[in-house]
């Protein structure tokens, strides 16, 4: 069965004690759009909407999308994963890979006169 973001959003909303109106205000989403997501009328949600919801809750987009679950549906937190972001402004992207060392350019030969 495909992942339904509505279940995770509702869980977070209830944990915070927010109404749907409060969530739409905090996430800066149109209330009708949010209602349709939560009622399952919008099974596909735009990335910007997921980002806004994650920022409002202070969680990662991966968490809202269920990416923290293993194949056996074990939460990442039980495997040592992290749900909360360090701060609301922290990016939801992994750290970039280390930069490759660059060799200095070889000296050029002097142009021959002639």
Description:
The N and C termini lie far apart (76 Å). It is elongated, with a radius of gyration of 22 Å. It contains 5 helices and no strands. It is mostly helical.
Taking all residues together, what is the mean pLDDT?
Answer: 77
Q: In CATH, what is the class of the domain at 5-79?
A: Mainly Alpha
How many alpha or pi helices? 5
Radius of gyration: 22 Å
CATH-derived topology of the domain at 5-79: 434 Repressor (Amino-terminal Domain)
Strand elements, count: 0
Shape descriptor reads: elongated
How would you spell out the order of helices and strands?
HHHHH
CATH superfamily of the domain at 5-79: lambda repressor-like DNA-binding domains
- N-to-C terminal Cα separation, in Å? 76 Å
Strand content: under 5%
The SS-based structural class is: mainly alpha
Largest sheet: none
Quickly list its features:
114 residues; mainly alpha; 434 Repressor (Amino-terminal Domain); elongated
In short:
This protein has 114 residues and is mainly alpha-helical. 37% of the residues lie in helices and 0% in strands. The protein has helices at 5-16, 20-26, 31-38, 47-57, 61-64.
Task: Outline the fold blueprint.
Blueprint: H1 5-16, H2 20-26, H3 31-38, H4 47-57, H5 61-64
């Amino acid at each position: 069965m495909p992942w339904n973001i509505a279940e995770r959003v509702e869980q977070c909303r209830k944990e915070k004690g927010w109404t749907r109106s409060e969530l739409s205000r905090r996430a800066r989403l149109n209330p009708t759009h949010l209602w349709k997501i939560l009622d399952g009328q919008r099974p596909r949600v735009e990335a910007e909407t997921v980002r806004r919801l994650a920022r409002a809750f202070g969680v990662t987009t991966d968490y809202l999308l269920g990416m923290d679950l293993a194949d056996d549906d074990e939460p990442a937190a039980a495997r040592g994963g992290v749900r909360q972001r360090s701060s609301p402004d922290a990016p939801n992207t992994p750290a970039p890979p280390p930069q490759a060392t660059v060799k200095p350019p070889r000296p050029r030969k002097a142009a021959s006169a002639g």
